[in-house]
Design goal:
- With 151 residues, the protein is mainly alpha-helical.
- The protein has a single domain, classed as Winged helix-like DNA-binding domain superfamily/Winged helix DNA-binding domain (Arc Repressor Mutant, subunit A, Orthogonal Bundle), CATH 1.10.10.
- The chain is built from 6 helices and 3 strands.
- A 3-stranded antiparallel β-sheet has the order 1-3-2.
- The chain is globular and about 55 Å long.
Length: 151
């Protein structure tokens, strides 16, 4: 005999579904605009952001995968596609052959530097501008609390 899960209350379900619809719509719009204006996918952009934030513009594959919440195999395949376009390269570790790094290339750095201003403008227009300063602060607090819980 199976036990019924504790279903969401009407208020919980409304909040959850609104969040999911907002996330999906916002992600879709930002992704389409990013692709149309820069030729970068959202995945490319996420990887390039992590690499530009890293010392020397390089990270171990597993660290990069964890940072963007991907499996190692997905990261490896995506890095291969990015390498074919000259955005990133895979580097072997001389000290430990089990470790591989991903490094941003000059082409990758140029691509994200060109894409970032328009992407930031889109984020501001679509997600920041509709909120009051108090709502923006609350969004940050809510996001931080959920992130702390997940980690």
């Amino acid at each position: 005999m199976s036990v019924e899960p504790p279903w969401l209350s009407a208020a919980e379900q409304q909040a959850w579904r609104s969040f999911i619809r907002m996330r999906d719509k916002l992600t879709g719009r930002l992704t389409r605009e990013l692709q149309a204006e820069s030729g970068l996918s959202a995945a490319d952009y996420a990887v390039l952001v992590e690499l530009t934030d890293a010392p020397e513009g390089r990270l171990p594959v597993l660290t990069l995968a964890k940072a963007v919440e991907w499996e190692k195999s997905r990261m490896s395949h995506h890095v291969d596609r990015m390498a074919k376009r000259g955005l990133a390269v895979r580097e072997e570790c001389a000290e430990d052959r089990r470790v591989a790094f991903v490094a941003i290339t000059p082409t990758g750095r140029e691509a994200i530097e060109a894409a970032a201003p328009r992407h930031v403008e889109a984020v501001r227009r679509l997600a920041i501008a509709p909120l009051t300063p108090a709502e923006l602060a609350m969004l940050g607090q809510i996001s931080d609390r959920i992130l702390e819980h997940l980690e």
